[in-house]
Amino acid sequence: MKPDIHPDYVVTEVTCTCGATFTTRSTVESGQIRSDVCSQCHPFYTGKQKLLDTGGRVARFEARFGKKKAADK
């Protein structure tokens, strides 16, 4: 490998919106990452349904286009 072409690999603290934090290593220079979901709050791991609609995008789409009926075959 060529010297001095790879970024530094630093200890990084990941913080989720649910409040969970864990430490890993990353090339992020600040040493901090903010995440929307993690294994402690993701529905796949918890088995619970959680709405992840950020900013009302689904509601805005439904208001704009409405719910359409399925096409008759």
TrEMBL record:
Pfam families: Ribosomal_L31. The keyword Metal-binding applies. Its cofactor is Zn(2+). One of its GO terms (cellular component) is ribonucleoprotein complex. Gene3D superfamilies: Ribosomal protein L31 (4.10.830.30). Signal peptide: none annotated. Zn(2+) binds at C16, C18, C38, C41. It comes from the Bacteria. One of its GO terms (biological process) is translation. Binds 1 zinc ion per subunit. SUPFAM superfamilies: L28p-like. GO terms for molecular function: metal ion binding; rRNA binding; structural constituent of ribosome. Keywords: Metal-binding, Ribonucleoprotein, Ribosomal protein, RNA-binding, rRNA-binding, Zinc. HAMAP family: Ribosomal_bL31_1. Binds the 23S rRNA. Part of the 50S ribosomal subunit. PANTHER family: 50S RIBOSOMAL PROTEIN L31, CHLOROPLASTIC (PTHR33280), LARGE RIBOSOMAL SUBUNIT PROTEIN BL31C (PTHR33280:SF1). Belongs to the bacterial ribosomal protein bL31 family. Type A subfamily. This is Large ribosomal subunit protein bL31. It comes from Actinocorallia herbida.
